[in-house]
Amino acid sequence: MVEKSLSGVRMALHTKSELFLCLLLLFCFEPITAAAEVTDTTVSPSGSQYTGAIHLFRPESGSIQSTQINDIINGPHGEVLFATSFGLSAYNGSWSARHINRDNFSAGLLDDYVTALEYDSSGNFWIGFGGGIQIYNGRDYTVIRDQDLLKSLEVRDIQRWNDDMWVATGNAALHRYHDGTWTWFAPYSRDGPGFYEADSMALDSATDTLLVATGREGLWKVTASNGTTRFDKIQDKNDPFGMLGHVRRDPLGGACFFNATQVAHYDPGTGFTSLMSISDLGGGGSYAINDVTVGSDGAIYVATDNGIYIWENDQITSHMSTFEGFGSSHGITTVFSDAGNRLWFSTQDDVGYYTGDTSTEPRIAIETMTPTPLTPTMTPVPVPLNVSQTAVPEGSPKQTAASPLDQIFAFLSGFFPFLSPSH
Length: 423
Fold this sequence. Notes:
With 423 residues, the chain is mainly beta. It is built from 3 helices and 29 strands.
């Protein structure tokens, strides 16, 4: 009788194990079906409906190399380029990537941690790192690590302004490259910038003005006329908008300044206009603002810890989150509106893009993209380059991407906490 009871217990345990295995396999091998089911609901909690498509990518060979995105720009041939914590990624219908080449810095990246990207007026591709700049002319890389040229090698942002290239570096304010010559605008120098650390720059093409955000030293504009460069503070750190330490370009003119709690628009003619704060996002003001991008139609997309909010016509018109299929994490860390009007976004787990408009038509279709074979080439315009090249010591240790099995367990740990590596 005891043996029979023990047999029954073993059978029950075995059955539960099989059920758990089936459930595990269901999650592992049917991610697309699970994502598609989310789109069947007719109304989201925000009350919005959408038409369009979301394409999701996860870090692996043949895909985006990391979800930690430091910069995104449009390429010259329709591609979108990503500065990531694990190399340079490019998307043009399929993915390609570049990584560090420790044997020859003229044939690969200086480091796998990329901080900034920009093209100059001749088509050369500028790549910023924590320890210098590389400039790619379509054939090889020129390395800039000479502190006679860059007073700080920590590159935070690169911005083209007509034929000039402006570089924000560490605590050394701004540098400018023009026709083979580097100029350093030293902090608090006469007629120079009244700040040490610039966070980001944005070009206001409507007024031909460079706008600069700093974290603790106010907001600035730079103008140039007759060979003279002028720096003017537009907000002191103690002014209402003075602590909005990040700036993003508005293609219709002006720029958006923001920090974790507030977004404002700046126009040289009308000054600052407050757009939204975290109190407008619900959640008791607990949803931080992480990034901002402005579409070609003037719509402002705000990445937050609770999805993406869209600001149009002086109000929040839409809220898009995991419920609509925007990745598997509520927190959106970066947003970028590309030249093809695709809205790119990243979370801690996914990178993706959205195409479509807000509508009362059927809901978003979601596609989890199958990686294509990784190709080593990228296609910036090849032109000669006239910059001094400097010798470079060996770079930092190479990072490794998470394996597919690690990614599966990371995804499942959201549903089954005991699968987390910390348990």
